[in-house]
Design a protein that fits this description.
Elements (H helix, E strand, L loop, with lengths): L1 H28 L5 E5 L10 H9 L4 E4 L8 E2 L4 E2 L11 H10 L2 E6 L6 H12 L7 E4 L8 H6 L3 H18 L4 E5 L10 H13 L6 E8 L5 H12 L8 E9 L8 H13 L4 E7 L18 H12 L2
Parallel strand pairs: 1-2, 1-10, 2-5, 5-6, 6-7, 7-8, 8-9, 9-10
Antiparallel strand pairs: 3-4
Helix pairs in contact: 6-7
Length: 319
Amino acid sequence: MRVFRFSILIITILIFSYCKKEKKTVVETDKKNTIIGFNQNWSLFPPLTPALMNNTLLLKPQMIRYPGGTITYSWDWRTGTKIGGNPLLAHPVEDLKTLQANTDVQYVFVLDILNKTINDQIEMLSAIQNLGINIGYIELGNELYLPQVDFVTVFPTGTEYAIKANIWMAQLKNVFPKAKISVVLQCRDENSVNTRLNEWNAKVIAAINNTIDAFTYHIYIPPGGNFAARKKDFEGVVNTTNTGNKELWITEYGNQNDTTEVNYYRSLDSLADYIENYPKVTIALNHLISGSIRGKISKDGNSFTTEGKLFLTRAEKKK
């Protein structure tokens, strides 16, 4: 009888141990990996001095956005300057290779689907690829849902944008078959009086080819706003926009309140945690490394701002 009871005990222990191992395997399999990094307006980027590159390395970005946001529509990639901007702040495409060699970052490329031809933008990507840089992530434009006159003229609604995006996507996939491509959606106030803005997501979703890989959102805490309210607004938009099983890229996020606001850094930290861990988000890029008061590194690249020190702490926690 004792032998029988002992045998039952041993079998129970073995079964319990096996179940624990199985459960652990499932948890590890479901672990979420998000590419963390920064959007960067390259017209504001200081010269790539050793100090700037070393400080960028300390921030541990896995990805940097090129050439940035709105700058996309006034960027001359051949000279590496903003059209009509300061020619002394030039960043030719060779600088992407220099920065990558010193920081091991990958890039997400924003294409000017508004003003440039597809051939021009393929030429840009090919020139970058010839430097030995992988063309793995491409965004078709930046915030084209905004009511700027030139945006509205070219893309009266999200339908016209999606139709052109489909054409570009087909050609890009032909040249860069392994690249993932994203189109822009908006997550602004859904009660906006701007009909074009309100209808943008639905019209893009309805017209975009299902071969699209991802959808891009930008999330900022607006002046006078707070993290809790922004989180609620974002979820309200995302939960009513049918993106299916596609990836979500957050290629810009930040806090637009004054940096002296009492909860500024706490709110930004909470927003960063939220985005990096949000389901289906595979890219999370904060705005920006250098070039403004909200940059992580000073304008000359030699020291960290208070915001930069926050992201240094975040980088250390990810070790």
